[in-house]
């Protein structure tokens, strides 16, 4: 009996990381659905718990509060975004090409994404600060991602070894600007326009 | 008598544009003071009228409503901003130099200006939409301004006669991005940093 009880404890302990992961995923899936359907302001932890089919305590224990839940949601979507970017550009031969296609995909993905472009349309007053006056963290994470790509490319393509971080930040700023305000004279509505723009004005920044 | 009455009518008619202009200026001065001290949300046409020492009707007759007043205030400050930019760069020998110093002055002026940087700090939720999702008009006006400078310079400096508008818009977008979100890794806190950044990353855009 004792051995069997221990076995069962062990089994649960071993199973736990997986259950934990599944539960967190289930909650985040529900949160994403809730936030993108009703907006951040009108969504509570209760709503998310109900939608996920778990208790409020289960949510609070994992995500602290609503802000923690929003943050975790955002982080997960940002990593997915980076993965999609990586997948799109991985096979392209030069950093120039990767910048051009990366810009096209970044615009397409963020505009169409329910949590980025979607909430920007649904609740601009809530979302805008996180992309502007309080946008430091988002800017840094995205710049870090692009910087590491640029750095690797400089090695393999034998470019100058000056710090690629300012160029990366500049490119991220330009992309964010088009997400926030598409209404200038530069039309990037179709992807070919975005491609031409990036090749002409962003790619040359790699060599300054 | 009749002639004298006519003379007096004529005199008033002739004097009118000046009085009108003085009155409009007086109201806009009061509006600027009111908006930048108390924010847009908590300011009414009444507040502005009181501060200007005129009746509400006098304000309404000239500026339609509060939105019209805000717009007129903004327009006036934007023209002042362009004039300051012009004065700063007029004597500089090349367009490259004018871009660099223009960028430095643009950052300094907008950050310090009570209506731009000031309200962005005081009431970000009110101001942000006008600089982002509803920022089309502001972007177009500023891009127009810079485009006409670039076009003139292309003539006098004999550069390529391709349309300078996309470059102008790109530069405006970068400057707005730094106004909205100064918290990246590119530090432009002191003017020498801003100058180095503009010379290295913005000026080369003139030749792409």
Automatic annotation (TrEMBL), chains A, B:
Keywords: DNA-binding. This is TetR/AcrR family transcriptional regulator. Residues 21-81 form the HTH tetR-type domain. Residues 44-63 bind DNA. Pfam families: TetR_C_35, TetR_N. The keyword DNA-binding applies. InterPro entries: AlkX_C, Homeodomain-like_sf, HTH-type_TetR-like_transc_reg, HTH_TetR. PANTHER family: HTH-TYPE TRANSCRIPTIONAL REGULATOR RUTR, HTH-TYPE TRANSCRIPTIONAL REPRESSOR RV3405C.
């Amino acid at each position: 009996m004792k051995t069997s009880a221990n076995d069962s404890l062990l089994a649960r302990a071993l199973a736990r990381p997986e259950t934990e992961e599944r539960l967190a995923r289930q909650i985040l899936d529900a949160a994403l659905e809730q936030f993108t359907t009703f907006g951040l302001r009108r969504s509570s932890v209760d709503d998310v718990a109900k939608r996920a089919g778990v208790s409020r305590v289960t949510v609070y224990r994992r995500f602290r509060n609503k802000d923690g839940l929003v943050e975790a949601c955002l982080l997960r979507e940002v990593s997915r975004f980076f993965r999609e970017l990586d997948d799109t550009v991985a096979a392209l031969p030069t950093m120039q090409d990767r910048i051009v296609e990366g810009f096209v995909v970044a615009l397409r993905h963020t505009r169409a994404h329910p949590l980025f472009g979607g909430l920007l349309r649904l609740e601009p007053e809530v979302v805008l600060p996180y992309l502007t006056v309080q946008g430091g963290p988002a800017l840094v994470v995205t710049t870090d991602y692009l910087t590491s790509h640029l750095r690797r490319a400089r090695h393999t393509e034998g470019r100058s070894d000056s710090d690629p971080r300012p160029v990366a930040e500049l490119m991220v700023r330009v992309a964010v600007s088009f997400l926030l305000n598409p209404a200038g004279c530069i039309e990037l509505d179709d992807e070919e326009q975005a491609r031409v723009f990036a090749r002409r004005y962003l790619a040359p920044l790699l060599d300054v």
